[in-house]
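Narrative summary of target 7.
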Amino acid sequence: MGYAYERHIPSRAEMVVGMAADAIRRWRDRWDFDRFVLDCPGEADRLARDLNIDKADLRQLAGHRSGPPVLLNRRLRLLGIDPEQLRRAEPAVSQDLARCCTLCGSKSRCAKDMARDPGAADWKSYCPNEPTLAALGPQ
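Modeled conformation, tokenized:
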């Protein structure tokens, strides 16, 4: 499934500002969620079970803003996939991509690779979403 879009390659400044804003939101959201886990441990356990993840991953996910990660949106656009159109057409796929991206340990490498050479294929060797992104269509 291919998606058309107007190509926008973010500048390094846009990436840095976006990452800083994300860090501030994560700190605030993580503090709020930590209060929830302490005040309602049974509910936190049920939520983790319902999402089929452990409590540590649940806490990590809670520390990120709602919606897909900034780097994922950039990667989708670089591949010719409109993130909003994907969310409407394939919400479960979009949510899974966001979950994997959120929990990925290679965010700084990903950001550096996109800033240095957006068209390079290096990301395919470490991105947990690569098989799903490859299956979404022409890139």
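The chain has a mean pLDDT of 80.
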